[in-house]
Amino acid sequence: MSQDILSSLLNDSPAKILLLVLDGLGGLPDPATGRTELETARCPRLDEWAAAGATGLLDPIGPGITPGSGPAHLGLFGYDPIGDIVGRGVLEALGCGLEMAKGDVAARINFATRDAAGLIVDRRAGRISSEEGRRVSELLAKNVEIPGIDVTVRAVKEHRAAVVFRGDGLGGAVRDSDPQSTGVPARAPTPLTDDSAAKRTADAAAAFLAQAREILGGERAANEVLLRGFAAWDPPVPFREKFGLTASAIAMYPMYRGLARLVGMDVLPEMPSIEAEFEALPGALERSDFVYLHVKQTDSAGEDGDFARKVSVIEKVDAMLPAVDAAGPDVVIVTGDHSTPSLMKSHSYHPVPVLMRGGTTYVDATKEFGESASRGGALGRFPSCTLMPQALAAAGRLAKFGA
To answer: Potential cystine with 125: which of 169, 221, 348, 393 (Cβ 3.0-4.6 Å)?
Structure first.
């Protein structure tokens, strides 16, 4: 659906929409039981919601494509996960609260450890604490100076930080300095295109790295900086303009907070736990037409190959759903941004189960929420970028098209 058509159909409505994203929700059957993590979990409330609404399967990008978290979330938010893709550097910068302007270039920092020969021996600096990460980030922020370029550095979490370069004529087409392996030196940040903007950014990044090595030379662990995900700031159409909704985001991890900020959502303060996220929901619904609530721990368990832990996280979320009913969203969507089967220990291309209930959502014959049941649900199998129009329709926020 074109944005022009969608915009012409937007209706005012008091209906509130909740998008509950259990990161990496989709899975594969355990060979011993034939059931996925979601199907194994005891989820009476999710099953009730499925029975009261409709289910289906969504493809984050397209059939057979394994998505990263960035494009997968953009699809859930109703954007083109390919055309509107944004680099990791911008997401990290936004996620840790850095402000960006048109023309700025951001990159993700990994603090690392190099030996006397200049070879990388640990790409994560021994996973230094967040306190240590803040300390070395502040050293760089206070001491790096590049003529004609403003440089801002801020810690993200543990060994991760973000840097924003601001100046005339910058571009994001720069190769990472992270070699993605140990026993080799860091790579030079070289331009990926012939244009002057990429070269100017690559030169600024090289100067930053040279100064960083000197500033951090006496550090035991974080004595090297690796840059990844160079990206220029070119934000998509704001969520409110695109869908006519005020929106709030509740998320624990910086990247997902960055994704929400990217599309103009109001991002609530960082939450320390899943419980705190759900406690923040009523206030967010009072202030906003749309709330995005993100649970990361399902994905973490899947990537660790911990089937039982992923099951327990799903069950933990299910136990909190009475609080959602009490908060009173009119339309609720539960899904994942992608599948992370514990059997694969990684993101995968498999479609993701989705349920929607409330408003004028069709009530199908599904009685439980899981991959197998969702295959027969009324929502069918569809691209994730078409989820938002369906939610708007269920909430009474889309008028009829044509005479």
So the answer is: 221
